[in-house]
């Protein structure tokens, strides 16, 4: 199995589309960091304007933690598209190249073949999120230092500088699970077609449709909303509440994990029943 996973990772990282996400994240992060650096005074004034009238604020309200938090919020809605660029090609790429028959004539089972695809996709997702951590968090801290973080939700929360890093790490870990769910969905669609464009469009369409359905104020849809995986993708934001609702995070993580298992099971079932003609 390890050999199969290594082969799949080699296939992934030999394709140019794999690096689109890394390049996009690097460019976007660099632009945001430069823009914030050039306008940091305006940013501090706009962020603390509502607080200055009632409180005396002292501390570093422009720092690497703030920049990383802003980048995570800004990019998270676009990360799924960068993930499906790879996931949508894992099976469809084999069909397009006509290598299914050649691969499966070797002494490997269809079950191991599917499993190696999923695990390779998950490893890529982990590497991709780790890259975001290095660029947005580590890079921002090195350039801007550390300090307090202001979180504007239902209430204004100011986290001390020693209370931010573990929250960001927790958010990134949860983001890995979220994006693995998106990866699993794109692999599921990829196993049914022979063109990578279809799984990419289908995955993004499902995400958009579920988000729209969640926003429609109809009782039936609102009752179903807790079971939509899209309702739990951004639950990483709970780490920036005080107090943190760990039960909510746990329940959301269970639902996402259940979706991954279900998608893996469906993909395996479909592929085992599939006639390989090319």
From TrEMBL:
Alphabetical list of Pfam families matching this protein: ABC2_membrane_2
Segments passing through the bilayer: 19-38, 118-144, 164-189, 196-218, 253-272
Key words, A-Z: Membrane, Transmembrane, Transmembrane helix
Name used for this protein in its record: ABC transporter permease
Organism: Stygiobacter electus
Source lineage: Bacteria, Pseudomonadati, Ignavibacteriota, Ignavibacteria, Ignavibacteriales
């Amino acid at each position: 199995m390890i050999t199969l996973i290594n082969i799949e990772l080699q296939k992934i990282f030999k394709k140019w589309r794999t690096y689109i996400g890394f390049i996009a994240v690097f460019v976007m992060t660099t632009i945001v960091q430069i823009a914030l650096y050039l306008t940091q005074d305006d940013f501090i004034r706009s962020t603390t304007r509502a607080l200055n009238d009632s409180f005396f604020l002292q501390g570093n309200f422009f720092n690497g933690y703030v920049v990383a938090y802003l980048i995570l919020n800004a990019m998270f809605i676009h990360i799924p598209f960068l993930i499906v660029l790879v996931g949508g090609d894992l099976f469809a790429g084999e069909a397009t190249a006509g290598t299914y028959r050649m691969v499966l004539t070797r002494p490997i089972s269809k079950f191991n073949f599917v499993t190696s695809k999923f695990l390779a996709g998950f490893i890529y997702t982990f590497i991709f999120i780790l890259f975001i951590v290095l660029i947005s968090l580590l890079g921002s801290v090195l350039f801007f230092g550390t300090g307090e973080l202001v979180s504007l939700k239902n209430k204004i929360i100011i986290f001390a500088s020693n209370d931010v890093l573990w929250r960001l790490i927790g958010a990134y870990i949860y983001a890995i699970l979220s994006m693995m769910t998106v990866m699993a969905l794109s692999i599921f669609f990829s196993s049914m077609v022979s063109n990578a464009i279809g799984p990419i469009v289908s995955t993004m369409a499902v995400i958009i449709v579920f988000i729209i359905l969640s926003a429609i104020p109809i009782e039936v849809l609102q009752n179903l909303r807790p079971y939509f995986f899209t309702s739990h993708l951004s639950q990483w934001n709970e780490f920036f509440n005080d107090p943190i609702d760990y039960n909510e995070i746990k329940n959301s993580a269970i639902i996402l994990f259940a979706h991954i298992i279900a998608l893996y099971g469906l993909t395996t079932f479909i592929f085992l029943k599939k006639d390989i003609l090319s």
